[in-house]
Predict the structure.
Amino acid sequence: MNDRYASATTSPSFNPWPAAIFVCLTVLAVLFLAPTIGVLLSSLKTTQDIALGKLWSLPTSLYLDNFATVLTNPAIHTYLLNTLLIAVPATAGSIALGILSGYVFAKLPFRGSDILFLAIVAGMFFPPQVILIPLFRLFNGLGLLDTLWPMIFVHIAMGIPICTLMMRNFFATVPAALREAAIIEGASEWQVLSKVALPLSLPALAVLSTLQFTWIWNDFLWPLIFTQSDDKRTIMLGLVFLQGQYSVAWGIQGALSLVASLPTLIVFLFFQRYFIKGMTMGAVKG
Amino acid sequence: MFKTTRRALMASALASGLLAALPAHEAFAGGEVTISHYFTGDLGLDGLKQIFAEFNKETGITVKDSPIGHEDFKTGILVRAAGGNLPDVFSYWAGARTQFVVNSNSLHPIDDMWKAAGLDAIVANGATLYNGHRYLVPFGYHYAGMFYNKKVMQKAGITEMPKTWDEFKAMCDKLKAAGVAPIALGSKNRWPAQFWFDYLLLRTAGPDYRAKLMAGTASYTDPEVLEAMDLWKQLLDAGDFAKTPNAYDWTDAADQVQRGEAAMTLMGTWITGYWNNNKFTDADYDFFEFPTVKDGVPRAAVGPVDGLVISANAKNAEGAEKLLEFMISKPDVQAKWASIQGALSANVNVDAKSYTPVMQHALDVVKNAQAFAFNYDLATPPPVAEVGLSAFAQFIDNPGDVKSILDQTQAAAAAAFKQ
Amino acid sequence: MNLERDKTLWRLAMLIPPLAVFGVLVVWPLFSSFYYSFTNWNGFGANYRYVGLDNFLQIFDDPLFMRAIVNTVIWMLAAVILPTGLGLVLALLIDSQVPGASVFKSIFYLPICLSAIVVGQIWVWIYQPDWGLLNTAINLVTGGDSHFAWLAKPGTALYAVIAAWSWQQTGLAMVIFLAGLTAIPSDLVEVCHIEGASTGQRIRQVRPATVVVVALGVINSLKGFDVLYIMTGGGPFNTSDTLAMHMYNESFKKYHMGYGSAISVVLFLIALAIIFAYFRQLRKVDQIYE
């Protein structure tokens, strides 16, 4: 089936499979793209047109007003900046903490570390609405409401389980021999982590960075709860609040959705080449 | 923090300059009032910003507002209440919802402010006593009527709007014969269907019985309720409602009427704001009152009342009271606000001429009504409202199931009332 | 001796920061909210009373809860089959040296970059009864004039939402499977091929990746709230409620915070049971590769 080896092992003959696979993939890709194209279409039409049911038709003229409205609105710039100010530190923070705990569980296990690991991973297993109010009370008491801090801290905390899971699985693949050799040469655990394990783990870090950034960027629950002033809002809240009193400005929402998803797409494209190798390590060791 | 202090200082300088020109207003040297509300449409936001700016000019108090969309507001305000961080002032719906919050001791009573500002004389529909005290200043209210497309009615040969149930049914038949769906209903978000339940119950069993049902002392399995539901079922079975109401939002239903695919929709006066925005004007639409079903039953008008309340732990209760007074007692502020919202002002001194003809019509109807009732999800406590709204949606999906739906509703409602 | 002490010091130094953050911001709020499951708090006021296990007993009387559990199980099963299966197929197809592989990868991964709000809204427009893409396509093919309201009918609403959710999750599954496939060292693959290995054997080679995909699918489906909230809000009349949505409705719409907390306790216990199974799978996989 795989024509990598066809030429190596047999004489070249017509292999229908590659063409069939290509056609198959193309069909699937078109089907898969349909919703995304829908979003694109909505950004290029007026809200009235969409309300009248004309979404799924090819636009006859290029209507760029929605994008213009979105991109020239200073509030949108603030939202984008706020979201960036939250997503970058939160991603970095959760990965850093995941590295630390992942290393311990992988290389320095102790009695009960399995249970502790389990407890941390369990933190992924409940819907965030459950801790909405206790967290609100906490940050209210700390006087941090209506700032960006609660969202940064909460995303770091909520990201610890998945980061710990990934990094632990990855570090487990680093041969014990490497670590032992370094220790014999007088390295401390920290040096093993930073000079041996981490450099080998760049692919895993790339994966985590992309996924974490995407999840944090796209979140709207925590900003909804923790922000009150318009100048602290994130881009996803901007999307949610396009719901006017009567109806939603569909065209603008379409344009804003696309603008809002650009950063995560860019992050993916950037890290993509490391992605595959990275997911490997997490996957092979379960 | 820094910004507001500077603004407050500037404002107080301005205010002291204006002192001479303002009778009976003390200079208030600054301070801030936080307000959260659900008026998030473009017009609403701008309108409020203007109003807050005027308030600032007059009293020197800055208003810091955080608007949230209608549905998210319900969650947001609850989280803030639960977290002990309610804003000084927030918009809220008069009726059972406010009662619920009052019972939780979360609101600051405004009896004194009410008396001092003489609001008894100014405020219409003084149905604002909760446990014997005042907590809510009504801000504006709406009326639910049968809004119709004039051209569609003309084309179908309908010249007079029905006053009785039989006339109404006859009109629906005429419309169907003309190839038009008589009634548009967009119940995707459940609440638009409640007006049908409200009016049918009010017109058959009367406001007193309905009040009992809303309070939990009557049952959904009573014959009165079944009678109202049966009338509704007749309409549904006769095909008087346009296709699958549960699939469409109320704005879709309004669009259907505008496009002439349906003739009318039972909706609140805010539909005028929506229609005017879509270039469908007074010349194109009007409304008629929900027809009489049984003679001798008092004619009630149904609608929601939007109001403002002050939280019990408000940081600036004084400033908050001033804001409430400002919002309600100035006729021009009220008039501007009402026209933006497609609402009726709660201030009786607002010049009727500032309303569009359709809104004046609504004002007349409400004035002449023998009772004013809050719509279902504001008349009964929130947990029960949730049950009822889902029941209506289920009924619309399958009217034949009405008896079992009512049984389930009563069971769930009884449990919710116990809470 | 010193080495052991050093190790312990490092364990503490490295574990305390993450555990502290996790403890304060996740564990404590979680148990704090579980506390309310023993009260009748309505969220608004400060007055509530202790009601013992009443809320948990009420669960058995709650038809909406039963519906929510069934829907959650359906969602979980769908999560294991749909995005997993499709992701595997896509990964196998893309892995076969097809031209434009990276373009295909990006196309299938793209949905994850979109937020739930967008995903929900666009699929609402796909399912729209009169001009939605789905009905338009169906009518084109069958020549009919269906105006079926996919999201408004109890029989189809949940599945419609699951389809939208799966569309987004498939990319994630695909990427993980691709990793599993390309991880296999090339010399091993060569050997397999010379010996005539079949697609079936390649599928078996991705077993570890499968465990990850399934686990992620289950986790995400249990938490699946955002897309559901946007598309149906649990409707029509609560027929597409999942446990998470039911908890939200009870807590934030009906102001039964206490009861809502009880539901989240149950949800958490279910998740905990699943993670035990997952962990056992991990152990088994580890053993295979040791």
Q: What stands out?
A: The domain at 57-288 of chain C is CATH 1.10.3720.10 (MetI-like fold). Chain C is about 75% helix and 0% strand.
